[in-house]
Amino acid sequence: MENPTEINHSGAISRIPIKVENDELTRKEPVWVFGYGSLCWNPGFEYQQCVTGYVKGFSRRFWQGNTTHRGTESKPGRVATLIEDNEGITWGKAFLIAAENHAALPYLSTRECQLGGYRTYTVNFHPRPAPIATSSSFQQDNKDALLYIALPENRHWLGAAPLPDIARQILECQGSSGSNVEYLLKLADFMREEIPEALDEHLFSLERLVRKFASDMKICLRTLMGETERGEPKREAKPPPPSFQFASRVPDKKLRCVNM
Predict the structure, then answer these.
(1) Residue 112 a catalytic site member
(2) Is residue 205 within 8 Å of 163, Cβ to Cβ?
(3) Pseudo-torsion of CA 254, 153, 68, 200, nearest 10°?
(4) Catalytic hit among 21, 46, 87, 112
(5) What tens digit of pLDDT does each residue of 110-152 get?
(6) Based on the number of CB atoms within 10 Å of its own CB, is 246 exposed (0-12), middle (13-18) or buried (19 or more)?
């Protein structure tokens, strides 16, 4: 197992003494995990609490390949990762894992790292401000959270491409967890339903293109979403949000790699 590393805003890498044992951080307290992809709508593990919020200094991009959940070795799908962006923020959901829960982090290590090609870091998570002041101070407190990011050196990396090419690839791919389209559209739905005021130009542009290409090619999105097989009623398509960026200037950021 590689030694843990810290990546700071200047790009320097230094060693951090974090103990790792049996794919589980040795800990006596609960730990937060921040999700910005499928974890937002399909965490797959038990948790004590979930909170919508964001991380600063990053933008979400569909630049990571996937050959298990949303694609195959011969036809990899595209899933989200984060890239460093001084003016960016990424919205998602953080989950609180109890100290006595020793199954969640190994599960995530398998799902995200071993199968997905991601690495584990810690990052500062900002809970969404409560609309009405309450006696609880939690909503106003930032938290350290584990975060999974795919870097260009991993074997599944696909990198940047013209948005129409990415959209066509997403439309064509499917894996053991379902279609690549389902991943994209459920993430877009999460953003609209949970954080309607926050925009993600990359995500919503891909959604618009996938819907357009599916319509042009007479591809049934309900089938790709698995709705026909489950006999679910047809849902009204939600209009994509306006096309402009949602960003915040944030000059500093720090990640600590724990390499689970």
Answers:
(1) yes
(2) yes
(3) 50
(4) 112
(5) 999 999 999 999 999 999 987 655 544 445 588 899 999 999 9
(6) middle
